[in-house]
Amino acid sequence: MTPAFAGQKESATLQGAVQSGGSGLPLYKVSLYIAYLQGGPDWKLLGTGTSDGTGRFFITYAVPPGLAEAPSLLFVQAERGPVLLASAISMGPTPPAFVVVNERTTVATGAAYAQFVESRKIAGNPVGMLNALPMAANFANPFTGAVGGVINSLPNGTDTTTLATFNSLSNAVASCVAEAINCSVLFQAATPPGGAAPTNVLQAIANIIKNPSYPGYPSIAQDPVFLLSQLNPIYQPALTQRPTSWLLFLKITGGFYSTQDFSNLMSGPGNFAIDGLGFVWLNENYDPAPPTHFACAGHRLIKFHPWGQPVPGTPYIGGGLEGAGWGITLDPRGNVWVGNFGFQDPACLTLPVAAKNNSVSLFQPDGVPITGAGGFTQGNISWPMGTVSDPRGTISIANCGNDSITRFPGGDPARAINIPLGPTPSPGNPQIKPFGEVIDAQGNLWITGNRSSSVYVLSTDGVLIDTIPGTYNGTPVFSHPIGNTIDSQGNVWVANSDWLDAPCPTKDVLGTAQNPSVTLIQAKDRKPHPGSPFMGGGITLPWGVAVDGDDTVWVFNFGAKPPTKPTELPINVVPTGIARLCGVQTKKCPPGLKVGDPISPATGYQSDAIERITSGAIDPSGNIWITNNWKIKVDPNFNPGGNAIVIAVGAAAPLRTPLFGPPIPFK
Hints:
- The protein is mainly β.
- 10% of the residues lie in helices and 29% in strands.
């Protein structure tokens, strides 16, 4: 055998097998494609072959000149009739010596590249394309066709239904491989609302990931994708009942474990910042501990590869990290800023001293701390929450503890200024509780007031130019808001928890959320959009909110119900869902939907991999990164923190990162 691209030879041969459930598939036309990430065609055929009676194939092809210097990806597609199986096999000039193409590699490729599949072609932004390759390998091994090690192991495996969902999608493809008539059913089921039917299996899988709930759930019991998965269930374990969605929620703890302990990577993950290459930064509330231990302030900053693997050297410590809350941002230099909220249980107050809650920490892109042990405290920082950078590197910090904003112009703490949003509160009793922050296209800063149920707008020079009250024409529009975000047209979306009074430091007990919602404030007049606030689609306890490259709105819930007292721990846990709403680009929504209408079913997109979420962020591949901040079933007297993040693979329209204002699509 001649390894592909060996030495300087002008031709090379790729070997492999086309299989279904381990059995060879004969007479499939197998094609090898290259997708150049820069400096060449985005999709080019290199060579073809035909599988023999055992499913084996050989493709001899001419090696493109200069391939070693050209960033590229290689894909294999095998087709016969309506069946098209696929696999993303390698990056760079040297592909593997042997590959297997089957149902699992097809679902893995279709999910990881869902936002980039167009018929049989796979092309898109170079960052997202490159990062999707190892993400696909999390689900299926391109060399053997076996289930991927990440999805098959803890904290996934049998601990969540994600593996079963993946296998059920693979079984739906297997039904198409077994009987051509089933392909027609699959294509019809995978036809997007108002769109064209797919013409191949790869496109069908991509469509299902992008439109993951079959219309009518849960009132219509039948889901044709689920029914197809029952016809030829060669991959197990598989689902025994239809899901709320076909999204693949990959759970990440930083290792092959689920159990909480002192040795965990994280506890109480709070919020994300994603850099230009798709690497994901995460802050945490607490230091890792068992669930029966009290929770002390976290002292870690964590960085992940774009496919979920922790970066060597993480977690990073030092720099004054002290129980970070929701505040984390990248600046234009690639440095990472973290707000130190001082999260801790009362039992930690003297271990050895109480955590501080009056600083931000700064780290280099390589994780080396720039700040010293006390962080930056200039500008009267107090219980910091939202922390954002504008395009010029000015850092704004929402001081939940004293109703103000601290600004570091150009990222320089020596020039710090403090901007009150209202009257100076009595110590420990803020009346506004600034929380979420977002920058608009003009550089203005929009801040949610969690206690005041209002939104505040600061100009680029720090002047309070608007206070948007919680009622409009006698109708409530804000109710204990937390997170906020902005769409491509400058409209601001606000998550109304209708429940949380943030502990900075005092808090009121508000009971259950009666009317959780999302409010849209129009850029043109800073007035609520007609029909706003919006409800439905699985909005239960909204905390974070994000807008993707299609201006679709994603809402992240802190569970289905508020945490209960220790004596009221629920026996039956209701899964957490994420909600999806139609945004201002209604042409990107299913036909007939208006701004704010739910796209997700009434349950939201639920998964038992998800717990209580505080934040979600969208990367250049279209993956949604989700924090499992608290456990669903929790005793607040002990460690409430979750020990995982979750990735909804390929779910959203990709974004160019990092974000310094309105989202920029990154197709």
